Amino acid sequence: MDDIDRALLTALVDDGRLSYQQLATQVHLSPNSTADRVRRLRQSGVIEGYHAQLNFTALGHSLQSLTDIKLRESVDRRQFERDLGGVPQVLSAIHTTGEFDYQLWTANSSTDELQTVIDILRELGARDIQSRIVLGEITFNAARLI
Predict the structure, then answer these.
(1) Whether the Cβ atoms of residue 117 and residue 108 lie closer than 8 Å to each other
(2) What is the pTM of this model?
(3) Distant-in-sequence, close-in-space partners of 37: CB < 8 Å, separation ≥ 6
(4) Residue 74: band (very low, low, confident or very high) from pLDDT cuts 50, 70, 90
């Protein structure tokens, strides 16, 4: 990976919808060379994909939470992970070390809906659950790692 690849990645992190022409202008290459480099970065796994960033409040899910889960001893972790896919409020799950087994990020329309999610998590095998309401988020550009 050279400085041009890093510049391409930085530009794509800022705006994944840039055309090859726009990218080429930023990194001072031809659009064809730029497209080749982006394809190579995708094929090598450096770029895994592109996504839209959603506004959960606009979608009616303004109550976000971080929920720590400790599973009951008898629960199969892989089955629990598959079952989480059926809970639409769960946006992501991180398998962790420490006191809890997982940390979930959820988006809910109300505290009642969050309580319903907690009840579902207990049915799926959660023994201990600790939720915190997200008051705000501070994000940093992933391009800092490039």
Answers:
(1) yes
(2) 0.80
(3) 4, 5, 8, 29
(4) very high
